[in-house]
Amino acid sequence: MKIDGKSYRSIWLNENGWSVHIFDQRDLPWKLNVVELKSPEDCAVAIKEMWTRGAPLLAMTGAYGLAMALRNDPSDAGLEAAYKMLVSTRPTAVNLKWALDQVYGVVQPLTPVDRAEAAYAKVNALCDEDVATNRAIGEYGLTIIRELHRQNPDRPVNILTHCNAGWLATVDYGTATSPIYRAHDESIPVHVWVDETRPRNQGALLTAYELQQHGVPHHLIVDNAGGLLMQRGQVDMCIVGVDRVTRNGDACNKIGTYLKALAAFDNDVPFYVALPMTTYDADMPTGRDVPIEERDATEVTHIDGLDENGEMKRVKLTLSPGGNLAFDITPAKYVTGYVTEQGLMSRAELIAKAG
Ligand code: MRU
Questions:
Q1: Which CATH superfamily includes the segment(s) 2-129?
Q2: Which residue, judged by its Cα, is nearest atom 5 of ligand 1?
Q3: Which terminus, N or C, of the chain has the lesser number of Cβ atoms within 10 Å?
Q4: Which residue in the list 172, 195, 236, 243 is annotated as catalytic?
């Protein structure tokens, strides 16, 4: 990804070889604030408080946290305690547990003295794999956008997305946005409708910022606008990221995704879910079984923005109490296809992967 022309990943190892840098996403797009995470506790706070977020990226942050823990205490007890602390930071996305399991699986059989080095090597490799995976998702998703353009060559392909499943949610490229960047780079005209994604506004603050940095035409819309745009024929496809796809193909993603899928279904607009196969949880039967994170109600009752002096400010929106379920479930019947690094799949093809 490029920010003001400079290439970055969303997480990177410091020159010292053990701490990591991330962007504090709470400050975007207003400030590009790079922070250093130096301990498993730092990583846990960054995940819980959403300095870093998005299923693949919070997984890498957690995995580096485990590696950091092993520098200080590589004993069995240290490994177990750090794993337990990190895995509980955010419950909905399966990638966090998956990445921690990957590191755990590598280090657990080793003697304690060898664990930290092996953990860092594993997490570094997982980060590189995430980049390659997202690039492949971009290639497969590009075929969908190319075909939509072929059908309507005289206008841009209008794409609606929800939340942020872009490079800021992954190590690089993003999942849902990866095909959009590929299409734009291939000079296929695309235009993106960006859902603001209340309550934390990941669409307004992060996806819109990414698209703007990449030069992709887009408009920010309120979360309730997608239905009308679809009725008017102004959406050619929806594509979203996902925190967990259950064995039967149900997709658990940021709250509001389900309503977009319903509107898409009613208007014959294809609705795609982009995911690395690590987000497919074949052990969880259906979406009803996914733990849905409930976050602090102040995310709903208050909102952050810039005041007239350019200072970040929080204002209160209501006198009433808020409720804040952070994710919802889109039943598989509303998903047109799954865009993965292994190809574009139907629900049946995805399920066949589980064996
Ligand atoms: O609460 P967030 O901001 O971590 O939620 C992120 C999403 O819902 C993304 O769509 C999902 O993690 C996929 S990211 C590739």
A1: translation initiation factor eif-2b, domain 1 (1.20.120.420)
A2: 54
A3: C
A4: 243
